[in-house]
C-alpha cells in the first residue's frame, strides 16, 4: 500500500483498493508512514505474502523504526521510496532527500537498491523477492531512458556499463539517475583524451558481498575514481583510493531541478571540469 501519495509514487498492484473493496490488494494507509510500515511487518509475520509500502524517499525518516524491525526480524518487506534526489526540484529542501540513502545503507540486514533503469529495477526486484530481509528501492521522480544495462550483472551489485580497451585513466561510479550523469561526464572527459570506465552500482550491499577478485575488476582503487550521487557523500569513501566522492553536504534549494543542480555545481559540465582540474588535464582547445 501507500501513504497517501499513490498517484505520485505509481506503486500500485493490478487490483482494487482494499478500502473500497475487501478483495483489493492495495491499501490506502493515509499519511502515516510508521503505521503503514508496522502493519506491513505484521502482514509479513503472518506469512503467505510479500507486503510493500510506498512513500517519498525523504519521508523514510518517519518509517525508519519499522524498517529497523523488519531487518531485526528477517522480514521480506519492500520499501518503495520515490522522488529520491535533488531532482525533486521545486518542492525544495523539505522534500529533497540528502542523508536518507546513507541512513538506509548503514542499517544491517537490509538491501538498499538504487537502480538506473527498468532492467536494473527488475533485477533488484528479483533479488528482493528471494531473501528474508527488507529491501529499500530508491526510485527517481524524473523519467529515465533505457540504458545498455545488464539484468544478470545488476544482481552483482555493481558492474561495468561502459569501458575502454586499455586500462582506464578514470573510473566513474554512478547510481540511479546519476549513471546517466556519469555517462555524459565520460564523454566530456574523453574529449580531453582520457579513457573512462563507467560503473553502475545499483546495490552496495550486493557488491560488497562479492569475491575480492570481482570487486577489484570493477573498481580498481589504484585508478582515480569518482562517485556521483545527488545525496550525502558518506557512503562511497570505501571505494575511493585516489579520486573524490562527489555528492552534497548541504540541504538542497527550491527551484527547477536543472537550476538546483546547476546552483550546487552538480551538473555534467561542472563535474567534468572538477575532475579535469584535479587530474591537471587541460582541454585541447587550451
> How many helices?
11
User: What sequence of helices (H) and strands (E) makes up the elements?
Assistant: HHEHEHEHEHEEHEHHEEHH
Label the overall shape: globular
- In CATH, the topology of the largest domain is named Rossmann fold
Biggest pleated-sheet summary: 5 strands, mixed
Unreliable stretches: none
Could you tell me how far the N terminus lies from the C terminus, measured between alpha carbons in angstroms? Answer: 56 Å
> How many individual β-strands?
9
According to CATH, what is the class of the largest domain?
Answer: Alpha Beta
Sheet with the most strands: spatial strand order: 5-7-6-8-9
Evaluate the radius of gyration. 19 Å
Q: What number of structural domains do the residues give?
A: 2
Task: Provide an overview of this structure.
The protein starts with 5 loop residues before the first helix and ends in an 8-residue tail after the last helix. α5 links the parallel β3 (111-113) and β4 (135-138). Helix content is 34%, strand content 16%. The mean pLDDT is 92. With 286 residues, the chain is of the alpha/beta class. The strands form two sheets. A five-stranded mixed beta sheet has the order 5-7-6-8-9. α2 packs parallel to α3 (60-72) and α7 (178-191) crosses α11. The protein has two domains: 6-138, Thiamin diphosphate (ThDP)-binding fold, Pyr/PP domains (Rossmann fold); 154-278, Rossmann fold (3-Layer(aba) Sandwich), CATH 3.40.50. It has helices at 6-9, 33-46, 60-72, 100-106, 118-128, 151-154, 178-191, 204-208, 212-218, 257-263, 268-278; strands at 52-56, 78-82, 111-113, 135-138, 159-162, 170-174, 196-200, 225-232, 243-248.
Amino acid at each position: 500500500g501507500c501513504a497517501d501519495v499513490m498517484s505520485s509514487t505509481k506503486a500500485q498492484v493490478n487490483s482494487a483498493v482494499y478500502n473500497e473493496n475487501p478483495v483489493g490488494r492495495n491499501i490506502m494507509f493515509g499519511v502515516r508512514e510508521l503505521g503503514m510500515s508496522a502493519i506491513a511487518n505484521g502482514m509479513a509475520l503472518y506469512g503467505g505474502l510479500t507486503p510493500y509500502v510506498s512513500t517519498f524517499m525523504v519521508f523514510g525518516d518517519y518509517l525508519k523504526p519499522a524498517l529497523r524491525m523488519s531487518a531485526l526480524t528477517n522480514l521480506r518487506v519492500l520499501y518503495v521510496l520515490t522522488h529520491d534526489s535533488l531532482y525533486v526540484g521545486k518542492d525544495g529542501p523539505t522534500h529533497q532527500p540528502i542523508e536518507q540513502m546513507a541512513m538506509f545503507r548503514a542499517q544491517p540486514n537490509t538491501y538498499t537498491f538504487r537502480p538506473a533503469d527498468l532492467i536494473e529495477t527488475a533485477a533488484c526486484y528479483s533479488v528482493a523477492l528471494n531473501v528474508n530481509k527488507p529491501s529499500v528501492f530508491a526510485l527517481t521522480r524524473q523519467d529515465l531512458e533505457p540504458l545498455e544495462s545488464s539484468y544478470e550483472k545488476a544482481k552483482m551489485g555493481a558492474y561495468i556499463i561502459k569501458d575502454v580497451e586499455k586500462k582506464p585513466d578514470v573510473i566513474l561510479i554512478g547510481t540511479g539517475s546519476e549513471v546517466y550523469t556519469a555517462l555524459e561526464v565520460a564523454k566530456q572527459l574523453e574529449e580531453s583524451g582520457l579513457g573512462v570506465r563507467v560503473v553502475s552500482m545499483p546495490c552496495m550491499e550486493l557488491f560488497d558481498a562479492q569475491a575480492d577478485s570481482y570487486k577489484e575488476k570493477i573498481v580498481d582503487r589504484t585508478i582515480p575514481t569518482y562517485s556521483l550521487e545527488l545525496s550525502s557523500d558518506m557512503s562511497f569513501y570505501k571505494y575511493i583510493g585516489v579520486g573524490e566522492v562527489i555528492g552534497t553536504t548541504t540541504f538542497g534549494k527550491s527551484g527547477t531541478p536543472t537550476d538546483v543542480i546547476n546552483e550546487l555545481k552538480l551538473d555534467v559540465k561542472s563535474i567534468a571540469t572538477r575532475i579535469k582540474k584535479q587530474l591537471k588535464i587541460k582541454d585541447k582547445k587550451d
